[in-house]
Design a protein that fits this description.
Elements: H1 2-24, H2 26-34, H3 37-50, H4 53-82, H5 87-111
Helix pairs in contact: 1-2, 1-3, 3-4, 4-5
Length: 116
């Protein structure tokens, strides 16, 4: 049980630290957020839990393919905010666009014989 609490605390603290740093400097907040901290932590926890490098490799490969459609959020959100839409509407629309891009990516990968 203590192991899970440690995992939650480390993972949560990383996300909170990024948001706090971003309040002071959008550059350093973005720099830390762009480092795949959550993915790296997930790979560490998966390896520690399973000692299975095949599972870690599969996770890393899947993350790679799914990072590409996630970029739609970072393109559409600033554009919508600059167009004057409020934050929550912009975030909702950007999330919808990103979900559509995920679906397209998975569909394209499946048709190419790549299974995530």
């Amino acid at each position: 049980m203590m192991y899970y609490i440690i995992k939650i605390v480390i993972t949560t603290a990383s996300i909170v630290a990024i948001s706090e740093i971003a309040k002071r400097s959008s550059f350093f907040g973005a720099l830390l957020a762009s480092i795949p901290i959550v993915s790296v932590l997930a790979m560490i926890w998966l390896y520690v839990d399973t000692k299975d490098v095949t599972k870690v490799s599969s996770l890393a490969t899947s993350v790679f393919w799914l990072v590409i459609p996630s970029l739609a959020l970072f393109v559409s959100l600033p554009l919508l905010l600059k167009a004057g839409l409020n934050f929550y509407l912009s975030l909702s629309i950007s999330s919808g666009i990103t979900i559509l891009c995920y679906w397209l990516m998975v569909t394209i990968l499946n048709s190419a014989g790549i299974k995530l």
